[in-house]
Amino acid sequence: MRTPLPADMFDELCPSSVSPIRFGDKWAGMIIRCLEGGPRRFSELRVALRNVTPKSLTQSLRSLERSGLISRHEQHRSVEYALTPLGRSLLGPIAAACAWAEEHWDELVDAHEAAYQATRESSAYPATA
After folding, report:
1. How far apart are CA 104 and CA 127, in angstroms?
2. How buried is residue 66: exposed, middle or buried, by Cβ count under 10 Å (0-12/13-18/19+)?
3. How many Å apart are CA 86 and CA 14, to the nearest integer?
4. Is residue 36 within 8 Å of residue 91, measured between CB atoms?
5. Averaged pLDDT of the chain
6. Sign (positive/negative) of CA torsion 32, 29, 97, 103?
7. What is the pLDDT of residues 97-111, one digit of tens each?
8. Domain 15-124 belongs to what topology?
9. pTM
10. What is the DSSP string of 53-109?
């Protein structure tokens, strides 16, 4: 029996949510991290990736499979996803990106908040002609 993925693996305060470094699409790096410990079913991935819609998760999984980073195995009415050797080679760079985001967490959050505030202020006063 494998260890379940923690539901708070990618909580809202996770540095990966504000990191400007992306591996594939928005969810790809997190999917790769979920598969680090071995194969997982779609429903297992949904536990840790609770903020992703099933449609987006499916699209990300297909994209990762097309890129050769994960494999899809059907067995008995169940499908499991696993990292390929190529996908496993991304674990080091992803860990480095996560460490960098964690180290610069305050700066990243401040930048996101400033951009959000600037957007709110600019949309609060419609331009006049």
Report:
1. 36
2. exposed
3. 25
4. yes
5. 85
6. negative
7. 888 888 998 998 898
8. Arc Repressor Mutant, subunit A (1.10.10)
9. 0.74
10. -HHHHHHHHHHHHHTTSEEEEEETTEEEEEE-HHHHTTHHHHHHHHHHHHHTHHHHH
